[in-house]
Amino acid sequence: MANNVHKKLDANLEIIKQELGVGVTFDVLIREFNAADRKAAIIFIDGFIKDRETTVVMKTLMQIPKGSLAINGLEKILTNHLPYFELEATDNLEDAIDQMLAGPLILLVDGIESAVIIDVREYPVRGVEEPDLERVTRGSREGFVETAIFNTIMVRRRIRDPKLRFEALQVGKRSKTDVFIGYIEDIADQSLVKEVKKRINKINCDALPMGGKNLEEYIFGTALNPLPVTRYTERPDVTAAHLYEGHIAIFVDTSPFAMLLPVTAWHFTQHAEEYFQNPPVGTYLRWVRTLGIIISILLIPVWYALVNTKNLPDWLSWIGPKQMGVVPLWLQFLILEFGLDLIRMAFVHTPNALATSLGIVGGILLGDLAVQVGVFAPESILYIAIVAIGTFGTPSLEFALALRLFRYLIFLGTVLFGWIGFFASLLISVLIFGLTKSFGLPYLWPLIPFDGKALLRIIFRYPIPNVSMRPTAISKKDSDTRSK
Fold it and tell me: Could you read off the pLDDT of 239-265 as tens digits, one per residue?
């Protein structure tokens, strides 16, 4: 394909027809007309452009007087005859086609060796709704949508800072997916920003069919470690709060979320609800949620180890099943864990009208029947239900699923080797947490390495007026929120 725009309109249109399969594919349209008694054409994707604005542009071009474009035709079109503000001229036809495939239309005029790109695109988009996974009793009901440009607007509405930056990149040789990197210039670590852009620019692939998740795997290279090293959020207020702390937000077109980095394990245990309640209440909610997460990991392995411990003290004599099921106790827990995952996946694929019925059948009837026929011990159902509540109480779905794998590891270690296996597998889990990093930030900071002031901010939900310093491990400059 020739890169340069030809002087002859027919030559340009012939190239475009061959490249885009005009006449074969129904949605690539070419509309030819006359402008200043010259042949002209606009090329666009049907359904991507605004009809009214495009009609105004065409009408204006058709009314250009004869001979007006004889000298400096391109400049006159841009300055005098196009009543639109998002314009760009290029002499590279391949670049013009690439941009047209993203939504704008191309204007070509016979005798002018440049293409004019007019951004009159209008993406189909669903309405702004509250995210299902991050609901709050108070606060904004806005959630991100699949159009990245709309998501950046929702963030900019909350950050009216001239230092806010959204850099645009493209990933995918065929898909050319738009990727926006958001940060506040005088707060974020610029070396981290450069590293993120470097990794994105190095991606060599055809497309990102799964959007942000595909991009995460390319830039982080996570293959064996189940722990998430970037936080997904669908809330613009949460994204804005992280940008103020020095984090970087990555938006991928067609993905209704932002990727926040770098992160620690504690970012996945906090929820926006804590900040829509008074500080004591927010602290209490944070403690309850954290306790639920810990219980979801350790309850079953500890209980199983105690059941198989001889000569328990009297105050622990109540531990243990009063009636054993037909299935061995360790296998009961594994079956119930798999059952929980099956119910969760079934909920995802079940229409809303049937989801309640599925919950009753899957959660209550099956468990009750399993106890009545003697397959499971009643205590197994009880403890797995407590674990399920702790799992679903984890704010981040990715973090909750990762913790489930660690729960398997600790439980199987306990089944095979008793208390020794419990502590060994727990130590392995802690080591994995301790060795994990998110763009150089230790996963357990500020616990490891220790930072007392930052740790207190994680344990307690401070009143916002008392939070005067940004996290030092994330923002290397302008750390005082009260400065300037």
Answer: 999 999 999 999 999 999 999 999 999
